Amino acid sequence: MYSYFFRKHILCKLYPLIWRIYCFLYTPYKVWCIRRKKKIKVLFVLQSLGTWKSEALYVTMLNHERFMPVLLVIRSEEEDDRENIKKYLDKKGYAYIIADEAVGFRKMFCPDIIFYQKTYENNVLSQFYYKRNLYALFCYVNYAFHSVDEKWAYDTQLLNIAWQVYFENEQVMQMPRLLMRNKCKNGIVTGLPMTDEYLVPSDESCNPWKRQEHSKKKIIWAPHHSIAPENWLLYSTFLEYADFMFLMAEKYSDKVQFAFKPHPLLRGRLNEIWGEQRTSEYYQRWATMSNTQLEEGKYVDLFKMSDAMIHDCGSFTVEYHYTHNPVMYIVRGEEQNHVADLNAFAKQAFYLHDLAKCENDVERFIQNVIDGVDPKKEERMNFYRESLLPPFKKTASENIIQAILGDVKMK
To answer: Beta 308-311 vs 354-356: how paired, if at all?
Structure first.
């Protein structure tokens, strides 16, 4: 009872004072200390494989003499993805630690800097959230491109208290400067590490696509999870196109191979609506047809070695443009509903998509991919050169490391 009263009333009143002390007194002192260390301990907290977008930064730090990066696998409050994460890390040969939920970060590793995957408090077990780890500094790499101009996306406690928050370009920092309590004074334009992987030439040995008897066009279908009526996003067109996409896979089986790349949360939503058996059978069918496959983990190689994508995921609206390939967005309802909350950067990326409002539009796009028809190619390339390449002629990971070490002031 006393513990609840203390957390509810006393800590809530003390938080503004704690925030000021941490940001204006402790953070400068901690920065001074870590920049003088021979080895800076950096902890990457991993909860979801699909949204781990700082792998390139981890690898760059692993090969840097000043950093000691560590991967810590923990259970998410949204989904337990630990087995998928462990399988991937084992395959890549990365060392990692499985979190002991009875022990905090400090006893396990005592990091100087912590990178979380998401900023939402309800996503992390309380003992692992930043409020219990204020001895460290926090840096943040977003798990998707900054595409919405909404207060909830930027004005979180973690983003305000973080030492450094990294952005892809100057344009997307304009709104956080207006919406965040700290006016985004901790924001730095470095590019996002997820883009570094797209700048490396494709390695055929990492090709995730099924072998076929002859060459076929490779098209990804990536549906969003927001299928339930009570979901406030309501992007997803999955229920309307679920059967139709199988028809396309069968009709064009001699010319196209399809990869089903669902949002990680879609299976859980479908279990509630369809039931586990029907959902499992649907996923299994994608995994076993001769010209189709199921992809639920890391996807950069899948994207890089594809020919096109069809989706309704906001997080892919910008990212897929790094492949330079044609891309289609299936619009649910009115077109303006999809762009209402987008910033200018994301709107430009959205309108570089071929937009579909019916099944005929989707099939026309598939036929264009087969025929090599790509009317927006030059526009997409201009967008890539002007808005997507990391600044300073370096990778985003190199820019972030320079920002942490204070070698170059990047604002």
So the answer is: unpaired
Return the closest-CA partner of residue 23 out of 188, 158, 143.
158
Q: Domain 204-388: state its class.
A: alpha beta
pLDDT band for position 103 (cuts 50, 70, 90): confident
Tell me phi and psi for residue 263, to 5 degrees. Answer: -60, 140
Task: Please give the class, per CATH, of domain 16-191+391-405.
Answer: alpha beta
pLDDT at 58: 98
Structure confidence at residue 229 (pLDDT) = 63
Angle between helices 238-251 and 359-371 (to 10 degrees): 40
> Where in the chain is CATH 3.40.50.2000?
16-191+391-405, 204-388
Residue 21 neighbours by CB distance under 10 Å: 13
Sheet of strand 187-189: strand arrangement: 97-98, 67-73, 40-46, 113-116, 137-140, 164-167, 187-189
3-state class (DSSP) for residue 220: strand
According to DSSP, the residues that pair with 154 across neighbouring strands are none
156-183 pLDDT, tens per residue?
A: 889 999 999 999 999 899 989 999 999 9
CA distance 257 to 249: 7
Q: Side chain identity at 201, as an amino acid letter?
A: P
pTM of the model: 0.81
- Residue carrying structure tokens 């957390």: 7
Question: Other CB atoms closer than 10 Å to residue 48's CB: what's the count?
Answer: 20
